[in-house]
Amino acid sequence: MTILEATNPVDTAETAAKDTIKMKEADLNEAATESDHKTVGDCFVENPKFSVRDANVYYGDKQAVFDVSLDIGENEVIAMIGPSGCGKSTFLRCLNRMNDTIDICRVEGKIELDGMDIYDSRLDVVPLRARVGMVFQKPNPFPKSIYDNVAYGPKIHGLVSRRVDLDEIVETSLRRAGLWDEVKDRLNQPGTGLSGGQQQRLCIARTIAVSPEVILMDEPCSALDPIATARIEELIAELSENFTICIVTHSMQQAARVSKRTAYFHMGKLMEVNETQKVFTNPDHELTEAYITGRFG
């Protein structure tokens, strides 16, 4: 029997299909790196909460985000999706200057919150981060009691002077985070003793205790089980009545469930922004379609 005769036709077909997919992905990536790239879709809104123009982010000599222009509306939930390393979390951290904590990170372009340039050298980032709160990928409660976790922000920002007012903020924040009924009888116990889902809701309560205008969420459900994830998603819908929410997620199903608009990032570039339903049913960009149909990512 010859080598040719011994070849399994099924294996040959699978190999050919994989090679075709790799070639197509390479073609799409090449298209994404074109210098004349323009974001397609609906990037801008009237009276935006955040207005971003030509944002570029560098880590040393390496550029991570390229010429992103995007508006984020008042009380809007916008999801940011894309493959790992595409720049979506880096862009999210630009919105409350969390990238300032990285020595080699440099941000260029203009980012405005209600018309105020948040990268103005005269701006104090502490009140900015009170206005633009953040919930991280993994729950990170302080090694304090449940009560003190929520009370910490109002205390350091001088929002209250009386204990009764602080008690009210703690209860209101825990209620809005959907956690009050589960913890009201153990407020003096450590926040680290809660389950993962409860800890994440505690972190959300801690964030909203200082009355932010915007909440940034960087993959807030990636470490949670499906039940806890569903509760966080319900909470996002409730909070959107009072807050602007920007969420980075690797779950396209989650983006489809919670957001009004979706932004697709690829290789540091914002490829498409559109109404979420359109992005997942009839996207404008071939890279978006390739990602949501699982051809890469």
Overview features:
alpha/beta; Rossmann fold; globular; 2 domains; four-stranded antiparallel sheet; 297 residues; single chain; 11 strands
Secondary-structure class: alpha/beta
Largest sheet geometry: 7 strands, mixed
For the largest sheet, list the strands in their spatial order. Answer: 1-11-10-4-9-8-7
Number of helical segments with 4 or more residues: 12
What does it look like?
- There is one protein chain.
- The chain is an alpha/beta fold.
- It folds into two domains: 1-32; 38-292, Rossmann fold (3-Layer(aba) Sandwich).
- It contains twelve helices and eleven strands.
- The strands form two sheets. Strands 1-11-10-4-9-8-7 form a seven-stranded mixed β-sheet, with helices on both faces. It has a four-stranded antiparallel β-sheet with strand order 3-2-5-6, covered by helices on one side.
- The radius of gyration is 22 Å and the shape is globular.
- The model has no long low-confidence stretch (mean pLDDT 91).
Topology:
Elements: H1 3-6, H2 9-32, E1 40-41, E2 50-59, E3 62-72, E4 77-81, H3 88-94, E5 105-113, E6 116-117, H4 125-131, E7 132-135, H5 146-156, H6 163-176, H7 180-183, H8 196-208, E8 214-218, H9 226-239, E9 244-248, H10 252-258, E10 261-266, E11 269-275, H11 276-281, H12 286-292
Parallel strand pairs: 1-11, 4-9, 4-10, 7-8, 8-9
Antiparallel strand pairs: 2-3, 2-5, 5-6, 10-11
Helix pairs in contact: 5-6, 5-8, 6-8, 8-9
